[in-house]
Amino acid sequence: MKKLNYQRINITLPESTVEMLDKIAEKGARSTFIDLAIRNQIRSARKQKLREELKAGAVANAERDLAMVREWEQIEDETWPEY
Prior knowledge:
There is one protein chain. With 83 residues, the chain is mostly helical. The protein is 72% helix and 0% strand. It contains 2 helices and no strands. It has helices spanning 15-24, 30-79. The longest helix is centred in the middle third of the chain and has 50 residues, at 30-79.
């Protein structure tokens, strides 16, 4: 198992956030809970960014893709005329 390196940081949170943290995280497990929360937030942000990039790419290429479909339809119609 890979040994993780840790770095101590100093963060400031609102009292209400610390109170919620203390209610949900087991004693002595604040760091682990915060680590997992940050990792989940980063995963979510990355997924959202990827969705936005894919959507932007689809919109940017929509006209090109539609032109390709029309071109293939024409070729298909010429190759396989309806009887």
